[in-house]
Amino acid sequence: MVNLTPPEETARLLFQNRVLTEEIRRRVDQLAAINSVAAMVSQSLNLDETLSHALDSVLHIIPVKAAGISLINDDEGELVLRAARGWKHDFVTEPMRMKLGEGLSGYVIEHDELVVTGDVSNDPRIAVPAFMNEPVQAMALAPMHARGRIIGIVSVMHYEPYTFSEEQTGVLQAVADQLGVALDNAKLFEDTRTKQNRLSAVINSTADAIIATDKRGIVNLVNPAAEGMFEIKAKNLLGKPLRDAMAHPVLRGELQRALTNAPDDNSAFEITLESGRYLSVTLSPVEAKEPLEKTERGGWVLVIQDITHLRDSEKNRVRFIQTAAHDLRNPLGVVLSALDMLSDTYHNQPASQEKEILELANASVQQMQMLIDDLLDLERVQSGADVMLKPIEMLDLIQRVVLEAMPPMQHKQQTFTQNISPSLPSVMGDSRWLSRAMVNLLSNANKYTQEGGQITLRAHFDEDAREVVVEVQDNGPGIAASNQKRIFDNFYREPHIQASSIKGTGLGLSIVKSVVEQHGGRVYVQSMEGQGSTFGIRLPAT
């Protein structure tokens, strides 16, 4: 051990103190610089600006010549170079992309660890050919983390031989983690803004009127189509309760009913304005995620479509068909009479091709005549001219309907069950048309339920709604969910039914709907494919 004189010992201690002081100052500067990264990159939620600030921070803290930041694109399964500084050759005309799992970056992501290489040109893990044009000698790559996952990579480079110290790689990883959180926030903001802009473009360009509210029911969005449809400025609706914002009394009343009866369910209805326009209205609740993942209603969205052109087209189509039906009815009657006369000629004769052709022709003409009768019935009930309302005892009416509908069910040996309340109130209605509607429902169940199947008729009084409810349930093939909205349309038949041997005009359920609506009621269907269907009608009680 060398004995130092007091002056020498003092000099040694001063030197050590100066070295330690410089080391402490350097470490403090590094920590301050790392902390400043968060402040710098948090200055903006714009992703491009945040990336630019991030590269400034990296080049300021770590003594390197070039740097880059790549982000993971989960949708495409790629790593995309989003920002670069210090490249000697500007080969990045578009964002450089590489498949996840490839090259040195793939290793970093797969193993979630920082990687250093001091011989880039000969490192077999380098998978980007463009790097061969860059005289890079040394590289360090660190994964960026946010919300417990890797979101990208920070890479730093030297153009001459260089050895990254453990201290430098530690600083690089600390900076990468700071950048990860800030870049993830900026990316989330950019994604949200992009989706919001796209949604705004759709809302503002659609021909449908859209009105939205907050969870209190106060209007906070009115699109241009709504302004045009109701000839009112958005500023006159914003801030008002949805119940009061609609000036049209029918629309306001239907909205109040929907919000009161089913505030958490979708509601759909149609209204007719005094001008003759038809509107289709849908009111839907909007779910909002509250803290602790509790789902609550965040408001409502009202979508209103002007379907006048559809209704006019439907009217013209029905009018044409009904006119044709009137014109065809008499000639068909003559043809049917002639076929009956010819059939009588062959009645007592043995089977022959001529007799078979006559029977086929007779059946076809009868099917056409049934279609014409249904068309004319639909015309009469929709016009309302042939509907005569008076008090009807529903229990008596249902019992008569059952007697009429029983023979076809007995023929197919179907099990028929009744569950009818003995205390049904009366309704204001036309017994002929209501009988026709209920017979159609039972006939529909009979036709589409297999032999030996089950059919149930239920009837009860809904005291809360003051309505008589009649339902017919079967265990037939059921109806696809996508087709249930069309099941009451004129001439609509399920695709699998069209290909089957079941005869029908496609108007039976249309007649049911028209009859019930003429009586101030409504129809509905509940069905699951392969499990049968339940058709119901609700009529206001007297």
Structure report:
This protein folds into 4 domains: 32-192, Beta-Lactamase (2-Layer Sandwich), CATH 3.30.450.40; 209-306, 2-Layer Sandwich (Beta-Lactamase); 309-386, Helix Hairpins, CATH 1.10.287; 388-542, Heat Shock Protein 90 (2-Layer Sandwich), CATH 3.30.565.10. The longest helix has 40 residues, at 166-205. Strand 5 and strand 6 (149-158) form a beta hairpin. The chain is α+β, with helices and mostly antiparallel strands. The chain has 13 helices and 18 strands. 45% of the residues lie in helices and 24% in strands. The mean pLDDT is 80. It has a 6-stranded antiparallel β-sheet. Strands 8-7-11-10-9 form a 5-stranded antiparallel β-sheet, sandwiched between helices.
Give descriptors for this structure.
alpha+beta; 542 residues; 13 helices; 6-stranded antiparallel β-sheet; Beta-Lactamase; 5-stranded antiparallel β-sheet; single chain; Helix Hairpins; 4 domains
Question: How are the elements arranged and paired?
Answer:
Layout: H1 6-41, H2 47-61, E1 66-73, E2 78-85, E3 97-99, H3 103-111, E4 115-117, E5 138-146, E6 149-158, H4 166-205, E7 209-213, E8 219-222, H5 224-230, H6 242-245, H7 249-261, E9 267-272, E10 278-290, E11 294-306, H8 308-345, H9 353-383, E12 390-393, H10 394-411, E13 415-420, E14 426-429, H11 431-448, E15 454-462, E16 467-474, H12 495-498, H13 508-518, E17 522-528, E18 532-540
Parallel strand pairs: 13-15
Antiparallel strand pairs: 1-2, 1-6, 2-3, 4-5, 5-6, 7-8, 7-11, 9-10, 10-11, 12-14, 15-16, 16-18, 17-18
Helix pairs in contact: 1-2, 1-4, 2-4, 8-9, 9-13, 10-11, 11-13
